[in-house]
Amino acid sequence: MTTPIVGTDEAGVAQSATCIRAGGTLVYPTETVYGIGGDALDAGVMECIRTLKGSDADKPMLVLTDEWARVSDWFAEVSEALRRLMVHQSALPITHLVTASEKAPEALVGPEGMIGVRRTTDLFCRALIEATDTPLLSTSANVSGESSQALFEDLDPAILEGVDLAVDAGRPLTGVASTIVRVDGNGIQIVRVGAVDAQTIHKIVG
Cα-flanking dihedrals φ and ψ of residue 86, to 5°? Predict the structure, then answer.
């Protein structure tokens, strides 16, 4: 393949940050599976990724952040249920669907007015977000309808060829997708059970 491949070390973070600042796309490891992303504030990056994946134009993509403060003004409100999930010390892989505020980037808001955000625990992702000072767009690194991957060598060559940079974790990822929770008012709805089971979610919320 012709796409440059880097690791998750300091040099890899620096090269990935350069790619993002230039408006590029990259395949990278998360705490769950490999993802495709770039600058979450660049609508053009999102369109490039949709074209590469062959995904629907109205299918929203989630955002990874290192700290909630970076994206908190994108939320219309922070209910008690959402607050408890946000401050949970385990920082579990939970993607939060929250009603978007007027400050949320329009391209990230889904048809129902929701925005999806996860506070990542992956050290590479956190270092990259800090280095670029911007949230990281994230969607699974696969053609739409195909399975996500936990091993770099199992990634679709067409996906790897279609991005500007690829990051190899050098190890297997967990391979278990995040749990998606919709938080609306003080209620929660588990949209997809993944790495965190429903019992744990309800225990955190109380």
Answer: -65, -35
pTM of the predicted structure, to 2 decimals: 0.93
Residue 200, H or E segment: helix 198-205
Which value, in Å, is the radius of gyration of the alpha carbons in the chain? 16
Centroid of chain to Cα 156: 19
Going along the chain from its start, the domains and CATH numbers come out as 1-66+120-175 (3.90.870.10), 68-117+176-206 (3.30.110)
- How far are the Cα atoms of 29, 96, 129, 206 from residue 184, in angstroms, in the given order? 30, 10, 27, 15
Is 85 in contact with 183 (CB distance < 8 Å)? yes
Report the distance separating Cα 29 and Cα 110, nearest Å: 24
Work out the number of other CB atoms within 10 angstroms of the CB of residue 152. Answer: 20
Best CA proximity match to 92, nearest among 206, 191, 193: 193
Closest among 126, 106, 118 to 58, alpha carbons compared? 106
63-111 residue pLDDT tens: 999 999 999 999 999 988 889 888 886 678 999 999 999 999 999 999 8
Q: Using CA of residue 136, residue 123, residue 152, residue 197, what is the dihedral sign?
A: negative
Angle at 174 between CA 169 and CA 180, to 5 degrees: 115
